[in-house]
Design goal:
This protein is an alpha+beta fold. It is 34% helix and 34% strand. Helix 6 packs antiparallel against helix 7.
């Protein structure tokens, strides 16, 4: 991923926050001379390894777990939000007419080494953590499926563990523009409902040196 210095995210915790808030990632693998991409919800364990560990599971019928070997390099892409930016939202455009349309976004790329965990105890623990994470805010968290049904479902999936070796982030929020341009575009986006990108732009404006 091309990351100009003004869009780089050196804060690993900021990227961890993005992954935890937007855990539905794209697992990109390479095997037999071809690329594959699987869309999967992940659970991040910040405490493991130097840069954290990603856990997920796939259907046993999904060939991805058989096409990779333990230790293979993989890439997982997490995208927070994105939004079109009109030049008309930049006050400087109306003075100098030297702005072009663009697209702002927040993404994190997790490079790592994969391990297939075809182990029922690990699978159950992985699913339990992922389910608890997403059911926690439900008024009545799900937990009433019959044991034999759960046993059958657990046997139908395989867990994957990814030890993160490199975490790269890109928050493209018009940081290379004038303060007034960032601020006005961020306010416009927020008013239009693109709140996540809009608020991120306003935070970038607040952090920009005067």
């Amino acid at each position: 991923m091309y990351v100009p210095p003004h869009f780089a995210v050196p804060d690993q915790n900021a990227l961890f926050d993005l992954i935890e808030k937007h855990p539905f990632g794209i697992l990109i693998t390479h095997s037999n001379g071809s690329l594959d991409a699987n869309h999967i919800p992940f659970e991040l364990d910040r405490s493991k390894g130097d840069k954290g560990v990603l856990n997920c599971h796939v259907a046993r019928k999904n060939p991805v777990w058989q096409e990779v070997a333990n230790g293979d390099e993989v890439l997982v892409v997490f995208r927070a939000a994105g939004a079109y930016i009109s030049p008309n939202w930049y006050p400087s455009k109306h003075e100098f007419h030297k702005q072009v349309p663009t697209w702002n976004y927040l993404v994190a790329h997790a490079h790592g080494r994969i391990t297939v965990r075809d182990d029922e105890r690990y699978v159950r623990r992985n699913v339990a953590k992922l389910t608890h994470m997403h059911e926690a805010n439900q008024p009545a968290p799900w937990s009433d499926a019959p044991k034999d049904f759960i046993d059958t479902m657990a046997k139908a999936i395989v867990a994957l563990e990814i030890d993160i070796t490199s975490l790269v982030g890109k928050f493209k929020l018009s940081q290379n523009k004038e303060l007034r341009d960032i601020q006005n575009a961020g306010e416009t986006l927020t008013a239009q409902g693109a709140v996540e990108v809009g608020e991120a732009m306003l935070a970038a404006a607040a952090a920009k040196p005067q």
